[in-house]
Amino acid sequence: MRPGQQLTLSIDHQTDFGYFLTDGEDTVLLHNSEVTEDIEERDEVEVFIYVDQQERLAATMKIPVISAEQYGWVDVVDAVDDMGVFVDVGLSKDALVATEHLPPYESVWPQRGDKLYCMLKVTNRGRMFAKPAPEDIISELFTEASEDVMNKELTGTVYRLIASGSFLITDDGIRAFIHPSERKEEPRLGSRITGRVIEVKDDGSVNMSLLPRKQDALSVDAEQILTYMRTRNGAMPYGDKSDPEDIRQRFQMSKAAFKRALGHLMKNNKVYQENGWTYEKQ
């Protein structure tokens, strides 16, 4: 027997703390804490072989959700500097995704709750590693996008980061690409994001944008007003009724441009007016 094997073993004998199982030659302990259902009347038990906290070969009835042959989505449970991130594979011990399989910058490493599509590798010493799927493996999940997804918002999981952009697979299996020019910041590997389809490609994949639509984006004038307000703790003595010359001197814009920008900020729930003053919403 060796770590990482999934075996059907015979019950040799029971103790107060568990069951000793055998393959006819060797025995291994199935601790009571690793028993997931009643086995008292059974002759055989299907188990996974691993190395426990005391560095002993042990058995568990918890079968990992991924294996050397089976890829699957696993949840990130922790990140450790200079080591990598740990993922929950359905066992008492978590598997490590080593730094070599992660982006060079820890700022875009997966965080707790993110998901990675991985396979499991168990060393002869029982160390468990998860390896994210390469493109040819995850491509087996892809479905072709139809033309009617154009301009629609889709949600998916980021599965690959490269210098030229980010790749994600949507909940419907569509492969999407986000160019750096179509985002304000690089998304984390494994994070779930929602973006707008800006191109449906001939191969059935899509290009996506994380930027707001032009009609939803704040104008330059609106950004200028908001920046000024923040230098004054979120308030300014200007509003719809302010004198045009005061506005021109302060913001170098016309009263009409000021009102358009202010209206945009109010429509986007950024500010409100009261007694001739404008306040930023917190």
UniProtKB/TrEMBL annotation:
Q: Which InterPro entries match?
A: CvfB_fam, CvfB_S1_2nd, CvfB_S1_3rd, CvfB_S1_st, CvfB_WH, NA-bd_OB-fold, S1_domain, WH-like_DNA-bd_sf
**Per the database record, which ranges form the S1 motif domain?**
151-211
Q: Which domain of life is it from?
A: Bacteria
For this protein, the record's SMART domains field holds: S1
Q: Which family does it belong to?
A: Belongs to the CvfB family.
Q: What is this protein called?
A: RNA-binding protein
Q: Which organism is it from?
A: Bacillus atrophaeus (strain 1942)
User: What is this organism's lineage?
Assistant: Bacteria, Bacillati, Bacillota, Bacilli, Bacillales
